[in-house]
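Q: I'm teaching a short session on how sequence maps to structure, and I want students to see two examples side by side rather than one. Could you give me a first protein with its sequence written out and its structure tokens following it? Keep the formatting plain so it prints cleanly on a handout.
A: Of course. Example one:
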Amino acid sequence: MKKVIFAIIVIALVGVGIYYFINNPSDTEISLNEQVATTTIEVATTTIPVDKEKTNIGNSIEGRAIMAYHFGEGDTELLLVSGLHGGYEWNTVLLAYETMDYLKANPEVIPANIKLTVIPVLNPDGLNKVVGTSTRFTLADVPTNDTETVPGRFNADSVDLNRNFDCDWQASGTWQNKTVSGGSEVFSEPESQALRNYVEAKNPKAVVVWYSAAGGVFSSSCHNGVLAETKTLTNTYAQASGYKAYEDFDFYEITGDMVNWLAKKEIPAISVLLTNHKDTEWTKNKAGIESLLKYYAD
């Protein structure tokens, strides 16, 4: 008899529960609504991560992106720049990409306090003019006739970007025995503006700019003498790479030069001129890069 009474009680309780659930869904709805609201808040407050690996620092006259690629996350930034003379110095661009490949494959070479930034193509329009692209290319894309690369030295405004910076700027500059345009005014070109804006925003510890061709490491100055740190930078890279060190570039008069503008801003900067217009001289420059990483490591 007790078992029968217990069973009746259980059935009655279950029935009451079902009736309550059907006729009073509000508690369940409130619970579900609260969950939805919580999820919405979480999505709304999620921060989209910033790409730490690359930065679009500006665009060329023809709208091509000028990219900076970052390796390491330290507070001391070292900056490597190539492709200032676009397709005319295409081997400096390949050197930059070779450097980036090496850093990706060997991240351990970058000290914890260092961020190494590479701008492989500062003059993308000039590069595209010669090899048909403003990004990565191969030797098969390069004209076999050297005279075909000369137009790639200049941007789409026919300006020599290395005559457009703020140190002894002139509207007409010199390249070897030729007269070239330095632009309508200092920093008239979007490419030089992009580099200027990046440098002023980030204030790198040191800058290396790759050119071709003379075979040497050249210090920078703008009527203020060569900075002591620039001398150290020059000698460190030269000794490791095997290039000859020079206190200044005096083969002919130059105006509006980028590394000299950096010197004017008291940022240590050197020009590394590859020996010719065809080779990246990777072994030499790898040694130079590694020597700077070691020098600036904590």
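Q: Perfect. Now a second example for contrast.
A: Example two:
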Amino acid sequence: MSIPLYLVDAFTAHPFAGNPAAICLLSAPRDAGWMQNVAAEMNLSETAFLVPADEGFDLRWFTPTVEVDLCGHATLASAHVLWETGRLPADADARFHTRSGLLTARRDGEWIELDFPAYPAELVSPPPDVLAGLGVEPVAVSLARDGHNHVVELASEAAVRALEPDFTRFRRLETGVIATARGDDPGVDFVSRYFASAFGIDEDPATGSTHCVLGPYWQKRLGKSELRARQISARGGELRVRVEGDRTAIAGQAVTVLGGELVDVPQTAPACPTPALGR
């Protein structure tokens, strides 16, 4: 039996930009080790696995090395595939049961809006490898309340673009590192790059879950709750962010670039890594 599999570029309106995610549509739950093997085979920052459930879909996310608790771009890509393939009516919200609770997605014209948690950040003295790995002097360093990411504010967008991180140092961390600054473009409130070496990805192209932290961070800094964001990786990503109390609405677009079938070859899976980290 073969399994439908799609490759979707998320947080972009154009193919070959944004963040690619593999979306695997399962008819029944599968073993975590098998899913980890598929994610390693896809070798993308995330592979999402969807199983029909009561009032929605069960959703799990895997990097090539670990299962994670939260992933924005693969959730957006999952909703896009469900609507595009007719598995979900065009006017219905997508409901996902995840390790981070119930997450929803709705269509807003050409955009898809995700309802995610908000994770405020608090000023901290970071581990030495955070700043040494970036090699720059920060404006401020904070730690997200969920404990998964350090937020490093830099003086300018140019400083964020110019970063050449020492990923060897970042691999010694237990957190990701978000570098961010105010945007230069009048239509962009803030920019960011995300270094997730601790989770098996040196730089993630466009990341939804980091904006659960960046939304509240820049809401406080800029005094506004509706924000436009740009992730300035090599592929780039465009996002809309709205902070509403303890929730963050994160919106983006998505494009399917590949559709096919995964051959369901039985195999003995290696032990699945145990860390469950936010992305």
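Q: What should students look for in example two?
A: Point them to this: The first helix runs from residue 32 to 42. Also worth mentioning: Residues 120 and 216 are 5 Å apart (CA to CA).
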